[in-house]
Design goal:
The complex is a heterodimer. Chain A is mainly β. Chain A is built from 2 helices and 33 strands. In chain A, the strands form 8 sheets. A 5-stranded mixed sheet of chain A has the order 1-26-27-28-29, with no helix packed on it. Chain A has a 4-stranded antiparallel sheet with strand order 2-32-31-30, with no helix packed on it. A 4-stranded antiparallel sheet of chain A has the order 3-4-5-6, with no helix packed on it. Chain B has one domain. Chain B is built from 12 helices and 1 strand, in the order βαααααααααααα. The chains are: A mainly beta, B mainly alpha. The interface between A and B is large, with 53 and 62 residues. Strand 33 of chain A pairs antiparallel with strand 1 of chain B, so a sheet runs across the interface.
């Protein structure tokens, strides 16, 4: 029996910490109370990893944050950024999660890079000591989602696993078709997976499963217009939110998969990023750095940052929508006005994840340089700006820019044409090559 | 001596001394071998072709455009109007699309469809794109009328050019639809991989332009039925030694490549900067110049195109 209800991300799971997994909670709403902008860097922890490793997470429990890179799992102190412990791992990194294992917080993360070594691992949050391993049939992808005492993960062959958090026992597995690259979303007893197109050329699809049994809730939803991929899913109240390659954000009923509403944003959203869904408003970051606020009534606003966004989902901290860029910068937009209020400088190393931990905004960097985690806090000496989106028409600027260009280009052409005509004539080649005789009568 | 059954729009019935060119063309066609030989015509020594050289065509084309500030101003304002209409329909994107507003079909029809899909979604956008073919045909026909008028009157474009363009627009529309079909075929090149897809996406539009590019000018000059207008366009393109396919390829490559260097061209904004506008307007001029050059080429070879009664 599914009992869907709007559950704030921060409150999901009862005793779970505020930012326990990808986008904060099982529903991936990406919302939490946290430090307001403007921000300043309070600490930075370079991670002992390969030069261009990806750092995924962070996830937070109390005063401890955890990130996963290609080669390690690292726990650090939220207040100081000091490393507490690390353990080695292999394979593509996936976003970890924090879940209670026999009433003590534990970190669950994917490990292994082939069928022989693929496992789901749980270690104690306190010291990284091993708790259990659950074998998988293929390399896990995307990351893990925890909800109601279970851990969910998908492997590269499309097998979805539900693993008991307490002992690592596999409760059920279900195979779906298509390529999955992001963690599933869970809410109200349902588990929702977005699978990209299969190699046979079929379209991306949204799959709804019963989290208790793994049975399909409804037939996989395939969009009318074939899409190669979709964004990571999130759940807002009774709707699964996903942006597909056709440039449309869909809200699908969690009960039957029907489309509750859809909004065209005419932009691609990375399959690694999820929409943020705090209390009815949906925030979507597209790959060109456009941050959109949409809802059943359409698009409320878009702010075009004009920076690539590949791995980072937007998050909402109180009244601020925050998005990280591939250039390493972070931009903040007021959720009501759609105007930019703050932006950090580019660091050159892409933002790969963000989390909120009390009065610290944790930002993970990687993929395009040495991975690191940075702690941002409110800068009491800083100031906010109020910048409207370049996509908002500034009539005076448009008119003046066009007029100047019009005059410049027009003058150049007319003068050049005048000079050229003093030397050359415009000829009618049909008269040059043909004996013309007046038409009779 | 060959006879022409059609009447030129300039009011002259022409007797041609280029019958020898027609003879050469007919003879050359049978003399050439292979598919490309038949399609492109036989080799002709440099300077012996009826088709003007590239530099002559382009010089005359750009000279005509530069001699008509009103034409330039109208086209620039049309580009601004397109941008305002796009914004009015909720377009959120870069102004890069504006560089192709005055591109020749099928490049411009691709732009129209892309913009329509961007604003209205795939299905509605494709339907709107079909409707925009009519608008595109009107723009191309009126422009062709202006260019023909300009060359016929030593650079001066009379208002009558609009009427001539409008009269030609149904046949231009038909050619635009055919070019649109070629555009879809070009998309199928994607099944062969990215490299071949890119090649096909450049070559097919160039080939469509090669075959159909003279249609607007032929339609403005003479009121032939559509099949005859298309036949004359193809025959003109195949003028021996004209290297007209190379001309079309050059144009398509320029149209594809130059926008890449547009300052801040990929910047998503509703209010492009001055330098972006300068780039957009410069590209507009390039399209106008090439279009006029195409018109000049047609006027140069028109008389050498064999009449139906002359064909062997």
């Amino acid at each position: 029996m599914l009992t869907f209800a709007s559950v704030p991300a921060a409150a999901q799971g009862g005793s779970e910490p505020a930012w326990s997994q990808f986008q904060g909670g099982a529903a991936h709403t990406g919302a939490a109370d946290g430090p307001p902008p403007p921000y300043r860097k309070v600490w930075e922890l370079p991670l002992d990893a390969g030069r261009e490793d990806v750092a995924l997470g962070p996830v937070v429990s109390g005063d401890t944050a955890v990130v996963v890179t290609d080669g390690s799992v690292v726990a650090l102190d939220v207040a100081t950024g000091a490393e507490r412990w690390s353990v080695e791992r292999d394979g593509e990194p996936g976003t970890p999660a924090i879940v209670d294992v026999e009433d003590a917080p534990a970190v669950v993360y994917p490990d292994g890079d082939d069928a022989e070594t693929a496992v789901l691992v749980a270690v104690a949050l306190e010291d990284g000591s091993p708790l259990w391993e659950a074998p998988l049939e293929a390399e896990p992808v995307g990351g893990v989602t925890v909800d109601d005492g279970r851990v969910f993960v998908v492997d590269e062959d499309g097998a979805v696993y539900a693993v008991e958090a307490d002992d690592g026992g596999v409760a059920w597995t279900r195979r779906i078709s298509g390529t999955v690259v992001a963690p599933p979303a869970a809410s109200g007893g349902g588990l929702f997976v977005v699978a990209g197109a299969s190699e046979d050329g079929s379209s991306a699809r949204i799959v709804g499963l019963d989290a208790a049994t793994g049975d399909p809730l409804w037939p996989a939803v395939v969009p009318d217009v074939a899409s190669a991929f979709g964004s990571a899913p999130s759940v807002d109240a009774d709707s699964v939110i996903v942006a597909l390659q056709d440039g449309v954000v869909y809200a699908l009923s969690v009960l039957d998969g029907s489309t509750s509403w859809s909004v065209r944003i005419a932009a691609f959203v990375s399959p690694l990023a999820a929409p943020a869904a705090p209390d009815g408003a949906i925030f979507v970051a597209d790959r060109t750095g456009g941050l959109h606020r949409v809802g059943p009534g359409g698009r409320d606003w878009v702010f075009a940052f004009n920076e690539r966004v590949l791995r980072q989902s937007p998050i909402v901290v109180d009244a601020a929508a925050v998005v990280g860029f591939d250039d390493g910068g972070v931009g903040v937009v007021d959720v009501d006005t759609g105007h930019m209020t703050f932006r950090t400088a580019a660091t050159g190393v892409a933002v790969t994840g963000m989390a909120v931990a009390g009065d610290v905004l944790l930002v993970a960097h990687g993929a395009t340089g040495v991975p690191r985690v940075v702690g941002l806090a409110t800068d009491p000496a800083g100031s906010l700006v109020d910048v409207m989106s370049p996509t908002d028409l500034d009539t005076a600027e448009l008119a003046s820019s066009f007029a100047i260009a019009f005059v410049v280009v027009g003058l150049v052409v007319i003068v050049a044409g005048w000079l050229a005509r003093s030397r050359y004539q415009i000829r009618d080649p049909s008269r040059d090559s043909i004996d013309q005789t007046p038409e009779p009568g | 001596m060959s006879k022409r059954s059609g009447r030129s729009a300039s009011g002259h019935r022409s007797t041609t001394k280029v019958a020898r060119a027609s003879d050469r063309q007919r003879g050359g066609t049978t003399a050439s071998g292979g598919v490309f030989g038949r399609l492109l015509g036989p080799p002709v020594p440099p300077g012996m072709s009826e088709m003007p050289r590239f530099r002559t065509s382009l010089a005359q084309g750009f000279l005509l455009v530069a001699a008509n500030p009103a034409l330039i101003a109208a086209c620039f304002l049309f580009v601004l109007a397109v941008w305002l209409v796009l914004l009015g329909f909720g377009y959120v994107g870069s102004p890069l699309a504006l560089t192709q507003v005055f591109a020749l079909p099928p490049l411009s029809t691709a732009l129209d469809t892309q913009n329509a899909v961007s604003v209205a979604g795939q299905r509605a956008g494709l339907m709107a794109g079909l409707g925009l073919l009519v608008v595109r045909a009107l723009v191309v026909a009126i422009l062709a009328g202006a260019i023909v008028e300009g060359f016929e009157h030593a650079g001066r474009i009379r208002p009558a050019a609009i009427a001539r363009g409008l009269r030609a627009s149904p046949r231009v529309l038909a050619a635009t639809v055919l070019a649109f079909v070629a555009l879809f075929l070009a998309q199928l090149g994607a099944v062969f991989g990215a490299g071949i897809a890119t090649l096909v996406q450049v070559v097919l539009p160039a080939f469509a332009l090669y075959l159909l590019g003279f249609v607007p000018f032929a339609a403005v000059r003479r009121r032939d039925p559509l099949p005859e207008t298309i036949r004359r366009s193809i025959a003109g393109a195949r003028t021996p030694g004209g290297r007209h396919l190379s001309f079309c390829l050059l144009y398509v490559l320029i149209a594809f490549l130059l926008p890449v260097f547009l300052p801040q061209g990929a910047f998503i904004t509703a209010s492009p900067s001055v330098v972006t506008w300068i780039g957009i307007l410069a590209m507009t001029l390039i399209h106008l110049g090439f279009t006029a050059a195409l018109g000049y080429r047609w006027l140069a070879v028109e008389a050498s195109v064999a009449e139906p009664s002359e064909r062997v």
